[in-house]
């Protein structure tokens, strides 16, 4: 009897350990709940499960695991029929076709949205949808204002089978297969170091009133590159267009934002619709400031690359070696561009190599 009684009684040490274990488990659970409530953002996955997460920094690991299956996106870029735009589109389309066929790619269809209002000689080479430009004088010489208007028309008129859209630009080169970086209702975007809504709050508030929330709701992004659900973009696009036009009409805003005005307009339009973006730093790089293409998806050659023969950057001064897309406003660059001198960053070497490969393989390169 005594032996049975001792066997049924837990030792004091075991009871203490059980109590401590229960305490810490309860504490961690409560802490997790409080933390998630502070984030105050629900995300619904395809299985109907609701979770709390903060999408602004990165995709949380538990959401990455829930995302499965291929979700193709349609690549769309706006363009003009000017030679400067056309040769960039041809290079971009060449690398799209090449990367699309590789494992890990979520590339779907491709459309060059041509906002000249008329067809051109690239219609058979690149899938193209012609839309109308803004009425004469509306863009006030800022041709980029046609971009949101072009997307508004395309989204209404064109048959687009994919559920997602990648908004891209002619001077983008796809470095490797691009997966769909968006997550359901959370679009993916590249954070630009020069888009700083908080630094221009007095101007941002003209278009994003205080009653809509803190200025930090406006993401530090432009409209490209962005991977976004088609239905969400269809809601944002008209607002993006209207905000862009209002910004251009406001002298203070126009002077302050300059050539990035339309980028701010997209960021503000998204915030007005309550849309936040997953900020993907690896989405894109921009030579010569970014030195390596490692783990990046898109190379954006918007800046001129000037170097001396020692491989030293001479930005702001024409170098002994240079590559600048603006050197080719009236026609395409020649084939087989001279490679940069030793010491130049890998990103610039890769840029020239990829341009050379494209121009060597695109038929009739010098004739369009």
Automatic annotation (TrEMBL):
Matching entries from InterPro entries are given as: HPAT-like, HPAT/SRGT1-like
State the annotated membrane topology for this chain: Single-pass membrane protein
UniProt keyword annotations, A-Z:
Glycosyltransferase, Membrane, Transferase, Transmembrane, Transmembrane helix
Tell me any Pfam family this protein matches: HPAT
Gene Ontology terms, MF aspect? glycosyltransferase activity
* UniProt subcellular location: Membrane
One GO CC term, this protein: membrane
Q: Which residues cross the membrane?
A: 12-34
Q: Which residues form the Hydroxyproline O-arabinosyltransferase-like domain?
A: 73-366
What PANTHER family does the record tag this protein with? HYDROXYPROLINE O-ARABINOSYLTRANSFERASE 3 (PTHR31485:SF36), PEPTIDYL SERINE ALPHA-GALACTOSYLTRANSFERASE (PTHR31485)
- Name of this protein: Hydroxyproline O-arabinosyltransferase 3-like
Q: Which gene encodes it?
A: LOC110789793
């Amino acid at each position: 009897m005594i032996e049975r009684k001792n066997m049924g009684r837990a030792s004091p040490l075991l009871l203490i350990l059980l109590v401590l274990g229960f305490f810490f488990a309860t504490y961690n659970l409560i802490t997790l709940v409080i933390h998630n409530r502070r984030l105050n953002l629900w995300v619904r996955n395809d299985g109907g499960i609701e979770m709390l997460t903060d999408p602004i920094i990165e995709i949380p690991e538990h959401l990455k695991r829930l995302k499965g299956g291929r979700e193709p996106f349609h690549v769309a870029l706006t363009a003009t029929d000017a030679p400067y735009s056309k040769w960039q589109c041809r290079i971009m389309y060449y690398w799209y076709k090449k990367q699309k066929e590789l494992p890990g790619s979520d590339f779907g269809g491709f459309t060059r949205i041509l906002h000249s209002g008329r067809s051109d000689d690239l219609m058979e080479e690149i899938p193209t949808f012609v839309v109308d430009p803004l009425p004469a004088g509306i863009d006030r010489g800022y041709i980029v204002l046609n971009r949101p208007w072009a997307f508004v028309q395309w989204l209404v008129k064109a048959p687009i089978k994919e559920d997602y859209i990648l908004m891209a630009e002619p001077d983008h080169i796809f470095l490797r297969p691009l997966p769909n970086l968006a997550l359901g209702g959370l679009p993916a975007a590249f954070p630009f170091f020069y888009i700083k809504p908080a630094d221009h709050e007095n101007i941002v508030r003209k278009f994003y009133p205080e009653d809509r929330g803190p200025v930090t709701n406006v993401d530090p992004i432009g409209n490209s590159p962005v991977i976004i659900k088609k239905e969400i973009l269809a809601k944002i696009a008209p607002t993006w267009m209207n905000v862009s036009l209002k910004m251009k009409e406001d002298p203070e805003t126009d002077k302050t934002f300059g050539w990035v005005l339309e980028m701010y307009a997209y960021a503000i339009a998204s915030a007005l619709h309550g849309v936040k973006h997953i900020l993907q730093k690896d989405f894109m790089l921009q030579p010569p400031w970014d030195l390596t293409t490692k783990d990046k998806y898109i190379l954006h050659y918007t800046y001129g690359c000037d170097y001396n023969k020692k491989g030293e950057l001479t930005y702001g001064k024409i170098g002994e070696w240079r590559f600048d897309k603006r050197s080719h406003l009236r026609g395409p660059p020649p084939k087989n561009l001279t490679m940069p001198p030793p010491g130049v960053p890998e990103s610039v070497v890769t840029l020239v190599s990829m341009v050379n490969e494209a121009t060597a393989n695109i038929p009739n390169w010098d004739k369009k």
